[in-house]
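Input record (Table S2, row 427):
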Amino acid sequence: MENISKLEERLEQSRKQRKILKHELGAGKSCLSCKEKCVGGLNLHFWRKICINCKCPKSNHDLLPEDYDDESHIFEVLGVKIPDHKNLYKYIHKNPTTHVPLDEKKEVEWIPIVSEKDHAKRNEKINKYFEELGEKQIPFKNSDASKNRKIQSTMQLPPHDFNPEKCDNLSEIEASKLKHYVDNIKNNYFGQGQVDVVENTSVNPFLLTKTNLNVVNNNEVVGEMLQKLNIGKKELLCKGCDQHITGAFVKAERLGKDAQWHPKCFKCKSCSQLLVDLIYFHYNNDIYCARDLAAMMDIPRCAACDELILVSEFTLADNKNYHLKHFCCGNCDKTLAGFKYINDEKTNNPVCLSCYDLIYANKCSICMEIIAPNEEGLSFKEIHYHLKCFNCSNKECNKKLIGSRFCIKTDIPFCSANCVNSVNMTN
Ligand code: ZN
Ligand code: ZN
Ligand code: ZN
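Output record (zinc ion complex):
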C-alpha cells in the first residue's frame, strides 16, 4: 500500500514540475464573454487559437499580463525598442486646466519615441501626448489600458504573422515564404510613429500686419523672421481628421515629412483601432496594422487558424478562406472537404452534419428522434416535431394535422378535444 501511495505522490510531483508549454499560458482562465459556460476555463485548441470549451479567442479570457504571448519576438524582428519593464516611466498626473499635479507619479508601461534630447522637454512632450490621448488610454501599470494594449497588440500584430514557430506545422516552403513576407513588410511598409509637440510661439500681432512685413523688402529676411515666429510654416493638419494640430502629434515618416496625426487619430485605416505602440504599416498613403496590411496586400488568411495562407492551393467556402488541412468541422475537426456541412451561426464555423445534430438539432416531441437539417419540421415555441410525425396522437384517428386545427396537450398534438379525451380515457 505504502509503495502505491508513494508512487502516486511522485507522479503528482512530476506533473507539477512539468514545464509549462507556450500552449498552456493562461490555461483554465475563465472566459469574460461566456462566463460559466466556459466550463473548465481556457483550453486552447492546438491550432485554431480559440478556446475549445467556449470557442472564444484566448484574449476574451481573464488573463494576466504573463499569460499573453511574449511580444518581444515581434519587436526584435521589426527592430522596435522593447519597453524596459524594470525602469518604467513615471507619469505626472496633472489637472488638465490648472496643470497642478493631482497625485503621485504613476508608472506607465510604454512611452512613445520623442525626438528631443533635452530630458525635461522630452518628458513634457511625453506628458502632453498622454494628456491628449486621454486618461483611459494611458497604459498605467496593471490598468485596463495596459491589458487592452496586450489584447490589441495580439490582434494588430498577430504573433503567427511574424514567427513560423507560432504556426501549425508549416512546410519548409511556407516557412521561407513567411520569412520573405516578414522581411518585405519590415523593409518596405513598417514604421513607428514619433511624437512631437507644436511649439507655442506667442506671436506679437503688431509684427503680423502687412505694412510691417512690407517694411522689410528682403525676402530672405522675411522668411527667416516668419520661421522664427513659426508662422511661415504651413499649419499642421491631422491626416486622420483634417483638423488643425495645436499640441501633441504623431509623425509617420514613411508617409513623408508632412504626415502627422493627433494622438487620438493615429489609427489603422481598416479596423480603426489606435495603433499599438504607434507601430504602423503604410500602404497607399494610409496607415494600417499588420493584420490589415496583409488583407490590403490580398494575402488570404485562414478563417480556422488565423494564419496567413502562403500556398496557392486553399479552400474558399462561404466567402472565407481556409488552408486545405484546416477546412474541417469546428466541433470535431473532421475534414469537411467533399462533405456536406452547415455554418454554425453562433461560432461562425462550418460544422459537419453529425456535430450540428449533436449541438443544435431539435428533438421531435413525438418520436424523440433528432430533426435533422435535411428533414422537414415545425416548432411551437420550445416544442418541435418532424412534419411526418405531426399527426393526431390518438392512434385511432392519426389525422394529418398540418394545415388544420389542432391542440397541444403536454407537448403532444391532437386534432380535437374528443381525441384528447379518448386518449385520456384509455390511459
Ligand atoms: Zn472562453
Ligand atoms: Zn487594423
Ligand atoms: Zn489554417
